[in-house]
Amino acid sequence: MPEATVRRKNDPFRQIDLWWNRLAVFATIVMGTISDFWLPPPPELATDNQEFDVIMKPFAKFVITMLLGLMVLPMVRWCCKREHARKWLKVAAVSLVAGIVAFFYYQHLLGAWTVKNEGKRYYIGTELKEESKRFMDRHKEAQPRDLLFNAEWEPLNVWTERSLRRRHLLLSGVYVLCAPIFAIGILATAQLVYCATSKE
Asked: Is 128 helix (H, G, I), strand (E, B) or coil?
């Protein structure tokens, strides 16, 4: 019986499951910290089944969980000593600057690629449909908002589905890729405080 218990403890799959659950908990904490200001892109086109948007946050959490796993080695290697605080200070500073740039870049894309009306955002495509081209020929100074208003706020009646989908995928990609930047900043700051207050 004791041998079976020891075998279960040394089971590599059990250890992987244990560590993954721990990382997932930390990832949930990180996602909870950044979710107050890091909102996912507007929903996908009405023609889709919305599954892509439903899994957006869980996928970002998965990316952060993987990142936490990759960060274990440097966190263990540069830990517990004051001399390591300088390394984490650099990482935290770079992450802070990168995070600020990422935040405003995402907001810029959100403002440039979407139009907000009555609390809802609509994507702006890059390829006009024929009817919209004729409308633009008659109204040279028309803005995307004017096109959407004329189309009863149906983006698919203004732009091609391919161009709208491309904008959505790019914005979603920026959202997912930038989330780890905030996670690294949080981890580096925690390590910085821990190392700076160490007695060694």
From this structure: strand
* Range list of H helices, 78-199: 85-113, 130-138, 144-150, 161-196
pLDDT higher than threshold 70 for residue 12? no
Q: Where are the domains of the chain?
A: 2-196
100-144 pLDDT tens trace: 999 999 999 998 999 988 888 899 999 999 999 998 999 888 999
Please write the tens of the pLDDT for every residue from 137-188. 998 889 999 999 988 899 999 999 999 989 988 988 888 888 888 888 888 8
Cβ 124 vs Cβ 143: under 8 Å? no
Separation CA 100–CA 87 (nearest Å) = 20
β-pair partners for 97: none
- Distance, CA of 178 to CA of 182 (rounded, Å): 7
